[in-house]
Amino acid sequence: MASDKTSIGLQVNSRGISGDHVCQVGLGVRGRGVLVSMARGSHTTGTQPFREEFRLRKLGFEYDEPKHFYSCQWQWPAAVYISIRVFLSLYTTGALITVCAMNSTYTILRFLTIWTYILLALHFTVASVITITHHIKRPRSKNCSDDQQECKSRENPGFVDEEEMGRIQRKQPEGSQKDSKEQPEDKITWYMKLSWLLSDIVQVFSVVVTVIYFTAIYPTLTVTNSELFNDFNVHAVNTVFVLLDAAVCARPARVLHLVYPVGYGLVYIVFSVVVYGVSGTVIYNVLDYSQPLYPAVTVPGLALIVIPLLQLAFYGLYRLKLRISVKLYN
């Protein structure tokens, strides 16, 4: 009856492109008309309280939106995003093979540069495979290039406007809603967690490698043009690529994940100590253990200052992406 009026208030905990957030949803039903309003949670606009990043659970890799590991942050055609992923994978793999072919494998495997570049190529390859696999599995109608409006709501609940929410509600058949216990949220897979871990490490250490190379090593080098090209590939292009990766992908970022690049750095320090103890080889001047002052300054400086600042910078880039995407597509 036209005079009937029902109002329903819901608070929905969901996972958006930026992690946990709370959305306030109000439904007003008058007769046969449906009025839907949605107040978006703070995460969708990038205003989540910073202190939330320091909860213990943020150390882990639990995340309920697998699509963020194979989706573009921006509403680009799927073919464009896949092309970027494939290019990054092929380029870094080719550059790694070239560097290994032109140098003694035994010698270059001592360097932090090569360790990090191997992980970089592995990360881009894993991310490329994840992206291609999931885009092949998805129905064509779900591609961003085919249905932009549905893609908006699928990529980020914060992009769902009132008209779209109304359309979704009207399309949903009666009785289709089930108890949340019967339909548990999707979890990311182990290989998505691997991709996330690799990205945490390489995005920080690619910048570290670039800065150390151009401030402490490059000014003293005398190399041929071919060697210079390879050096730029593994010491400069690497940082360009991780910035591109961070800018276009929808993968989340967490401040406490700084422990993983710190752990990676400590593993390399132990390796350099073993190499020095066994053969007396000094891999880098800043890790010359015959002059303890150098490593005594370098190691704590990286672990306590440089790595945390870089992790914060990439987290800041992630939050900035969310704000821009809401401004562009909301």
UniProtKB/TrEMBL annotation:
State the residue spans of region: Disordered. Answer: 162-183
Write out the entry's keywords from A to Z.
Membrane, Transmembrane, Transmembrane helix
Q: Which residues cross the membrane?
A: 86-108, 114-133, 197-220, 232-250, 262-287, 293-318
Amino acid composition bias (Basic and acidic residues), ranges on this chain: 165-183
Keyword Iron-sulfur in annotation: no
Q: Which domain of life is it from?
A: Eukaryota
* Gene Ontology cellular component annotations, sorted alphabetically: membrane
Pfam families, alphabetized? Rost
The name this protein goes by in its record? Protein rolling stone-like
Q: Top-down, what is the taxonomic lineage of the species of origin?
A: Eukaryota, Metazoa, Spiralia, Lophotrochozoa, Mollusca
Gene name, Swiss-Prot/TrEMBL:
LOC111108690
